[in-house]
Amino acid sequence: IFIALVPVFSALLSGPVLGEPVRWQSWLALAASVLGMALLYPQGLSVLTWAHVCAFLGAFFGACSMVIARHISRDEDNALLQVLYPNLALCVVMGAVLPFVYTPMNMTELSLVFFYAVFLFAARWLLILALTRIKAYVVTLLINLQFVVMVVAGMVFFGETPSLNLLLGVGVIILASAYVFLEQYLRLIQDERIVLHREARSTAA
After folding, report:
1. Which of 60, 77, 87, 140 has minimal Cβ neighbours within 10 Å of its Cβ?
2. Rounded distance, CA 7 to CA 66, Å?
3. Contact 170, 104 (CB under 8 A)
4. Nearest to 124 by CA among 177, 90, 74, 87
5. pLDDT tens figures, 90-137
6. 36 in Cβ contact with 173 (< 8 Å)
């Protein structure tokens, strides 16, 4: 459920940090996405624990990292550097801790770790590329579509039958994501038309 808060946190930070205010229509779509995520977990948060606090902070810090990445992208056009240096820092820090927690792994497990690292690196790189072109709260809302993929994968590969609340949640997330993305796309087209119109007027003058 806390993952659904990442787009909300991103929207809250977009105004003061990026100077990108969020329209009220987008706020409605973001609220709908939170509702959709809640439908995926009908048991809710019956007992608040430290795990929930950690999840809340994780969602907030994740939103902060994406907003900062979009801010950096305004001056740095090399998206790969935004992935490389944080991962190098992570490698150094966790490498210092590794001797105290390491357990031997066979080749199969090492291969899984390798592919996991490759996919994670690629995902972060694509995320940075997206943040250079799309507003942070739009990107983070689209990320929530991963839960739709999970539900579909459960049906196709594991023979799981989704309940009604799961189908409703998936539908709400898809509609909310589609609306925010379409709104962003139409605004980009409108801005481009305004720029072209101004250029045409300047040329004519």
Report:
1. 77
2. 10
3. no
4. 87
5. 889 988 998 888 888 899 999 998 999 899 888 888 888 888 877 777
6. yes
